[in-house]
Amino acid sequence: MNILVTGGAGYIGSHTAVELLNAGHKVVVVDDLSNAKYEVIDRIKEITGKKLDFYWIDCADKEKLWDVFRNQDIDAVIHFAGFKAVGESVRKPLQYYRNNLDSTLTLLEVMEEFDCKKLVFSSSATVYGPDNPHPYKEEMPAIQSSSPYGWTKVMIERILTDYCTAHPDFCAILLRYFNPIGAHESGLLGDDPNGIPNNLMPYIGRVAAGKLEKLTIFGGDYDTADGTCQRDYLHVVDLALGHLKALEYAAEHQGVEAINLGTGNGISVLELVTAFEKVNDMKLPYEIGPRRDGDLPAFWADAAKAKELLGWEATHTVDDMCRSSWLFARNASI
Ligand code: UD1
Fold first, then answer.
1. What does the alpha-carbon distance between residue 13 and residue 103 come to, in Å, rounded to a whole number?
2. Alpha-carbon distance 101 to 152, whole Å?
3. How many A from CA of 306 to the centre of ligand 1?
4. Closest protein CA for atom 23 of ligand 1
5. Which residues are catalytic?
6. N or C: fewer beta carbons within 10 Å in the chain?
7. What distance in angstroms lies between residue 247's CA and the mean position of ligand 1's atoms?
8. CB 268 less than 6 A from any atom of ligand 1
C-alpha cells in the first residue's frame, strides 16, 4: 500500500515509517518540522535502505496537502501530526485546538476529495479521563480529559466517529496509546523533544547523559506499592507494529474502532528508574518531589481487544525499553 504518514518525522511517526518500509509499503511523509528534525528522514532511509517521499508542509495547509494527494496515489493515512505537550497545552489552549483540529479536518476534507477511506489515528489513553477505573477498556466512556491536549484527542475521536456515521464505507481506527518509551535498536531514532523534556523517559535519558542534573520524581505519597505513580510503558517499536496491524485491519473493514495499545501491565516510576539503572549499569541521581498537577496515581490498559481484533501484543520488555532509550540518549544531538 501507499501510506501517507502525517507527522512522520516525529517520535512515533518515524518508528512507524521504518516498520512500514520494512514491511514493503510505500511511505509518504508530511511534516512541518515544528517539533522534529529533517535528519530523522535521512535516518529512516539509512535504517531501512529504502526511499521515501517527504513533504515539508503543514497538513492544515489545504492547498499543499491537496498537491500531495494529487501527486501520490494514497491508499491510507496514519495521522500523527499534532502538538503533544500537556503542560504547554494548558498555557496555549487556542494554539492546540487550532492546530490539532484544523490539521485533522483538513486531512479529512482532502481524503474525501480523493476518495481515500482508510485512516489510523494517533489517540491517547488520556481520553479515559480521571474517572474510569483501571485497567481501561475500550467500551468505557472516553469523553473527557485533563488538558487541552487531551481534549483535542477526545474531540478528534468524536469527529471521526461522526464522519464514519455519515460515511459508512470509511474506516477510522482510533489507537489509544498508553506510555510509549524506548528507541530504535540502531540508536538512530528516539524521543528527542525540543527543550527540557516533560515526559519521564527523555528526562531520564538527559540525566543519564549528564545534560540535566537530576530527575525529580513527581510524588512519593500515592496510594501505590512504593508511593510513586504507575503507568503502562510500552516499547515504541511495538507501538509502531500496532499501526501496521491496524492498517491491515482497516483495509478489510469499515466504521470506527477504538483500540488500546498497551502491555496490560503497570509499573511505577521508581521501578522504571531502578530497571534503567540495572540494565545500563549506572546510578541515576533523583529526588522525590511534590506531585505534578493533573497526574493520575495509576492506570494501564486492558490489552485484550488489540490481541483479539488485530492479533497484536507487545513483546518488548521493560529492560529492552531502558536499554534502547539509553542507546539513543547517549548519542542524541541535544
Ligand atoms: C502524558 C499524557 C498522555 C500523553 C503522554 C505523552 C495525561 C494524563 N497524560 O502521560 O496523554 O500521551 O504524556 O505525551 O495527560 N514523571 C516524573 N518526573 C518527570 C516526568 C514524569 O516523576 O520528570 C512521572 C509522572 O508523574 C508520571 C510518569 O512519570 O507518573 C509518566 O509521566 P509522563 O511521561 O509525563 O507521561 P503521562 O503523564 O503518564
1. 16
2. 7
3. 23
4. 200
5. 149
6. C
7. 27
8. no
Nearest-atom index, ligand 1, CA of 204: 23
CA of 87 to the centre of ligand 1 (A): 10
Q: For residue 175, give every residue at least 6 positions away whose Cβ sits within 8 Å of its Cβ, in sequence order, or none.
A: 120, 121, 122, 123, 242, 243, 246, 259, 261
Mind listing the pLDDT tens digit of every residue in the chain (334 residues)?
A: 999 999 999 999 999 999 999 999 999 999 999 999 999 999 999 999 999 999 999 999 999 999 999 999 999 999 999 999 998 999 999 999 999 999 999 999 999 999 999 999 999 999 999 999 999 999 999 998 989 999 999 999 999 999 999 999 999 999 999 999 999 999 999 998 888 999 999 999 999 999 999 999 999 999 999 999 999 999 999 999 999 999 999 999 999 999 999 999 999 999 999 999 999 999 999 999 999 988 999 999 999 999 999 999 999 999 999 999 999 999 875 4
The three three-digit cell numbers of residue 311, written as one number? 492479533
Of 233, 206, 205, 220, give the one whose Cα is nearest residue 319.
233
218 touches ligand 1 (CB under 6 Å): yes
Q: Is 324 in the pocket of ligand 1 (CB under 6 A)?
A: no
